[in-house]
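Module 6 notes. Inverse folding takes a fixed backbone as the condition and produces residue identities as the prediction. Think of it as a translation problem where the source language is geometry and the target language is the twenty amino acids. Below is one complete input and output pair. Work through it position by position during the lab.
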């Protein structure tokens, strides 16, 4: 059994803006800073538990690249608080949990299917895992409404968050 946490792996969430005033907003890269992953290559199986209260803004993005200085410290605090309270409701749902049901070889990588518990709703998700040497990269698109999450929208919907977010987990398996 292989075990990973935030010191040996990374979990990032990519959030994109939409709406009439989207040019005034920012796409975001957010990190989950407390999590545990367990992978059993022999089974094969994977499981993870992610602390919903540990989200931190890494950067505002422009065309996928970090835009330093785009957010004030207050903006960062406000966004993190909004994600914890309004999106993830981390006080009532402190953990996001994933358990694989199947892991199959797919090309040079894998296809993982499993159950994701997010904000009290459990859904089946599937995602690819790409392999680059010892580095494994899993990317899953999550449709927030599938989990009872109404994507953030400013008054009148002029600035809002797209309903799909990209979750990326990167880790390096030992040689």
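Target side of the pair, the amino acids:
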């Amino acid at each position: 059994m292989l075990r990973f946490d935030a010191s040996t792996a990374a979990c990032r969430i990519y959030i994109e803006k939409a709406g009439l005033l989207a040019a005034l907003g920012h796409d975001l890269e957010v990190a989950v800073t407390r999590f545990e992953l367990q992978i059993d290559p022999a089974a094969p199986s994977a499981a993870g538990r992610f602390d919903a209260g540990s989200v931190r803004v890494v950067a505002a993005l422009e065309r996928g690249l970090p835009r330093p200085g785009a957010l004030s410290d207050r903006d960062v605090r406000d966004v993190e608080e909004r994600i914890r309270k309004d999106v993830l409701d981390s006080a009532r749902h402190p953990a996001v949990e994933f358990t694989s049901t199947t892991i199959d070889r797919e090309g040079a990588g894998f296809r993982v299917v499993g159950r994701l518990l997010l904000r009290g709703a459990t859904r089946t998700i599937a995602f690819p895992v790409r392999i680059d040497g010892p580095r494994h990269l899993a990317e899953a698109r999550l449709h927030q409404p599938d989990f009872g999450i109404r994507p953030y929208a400013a008054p009148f919907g002029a600035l809002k968050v797209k309903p799909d977010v990209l979750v990326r987990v990167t880790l390096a398996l030992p040689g």
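Reference fact for the lab report: The longest strand covers residues 95-106.
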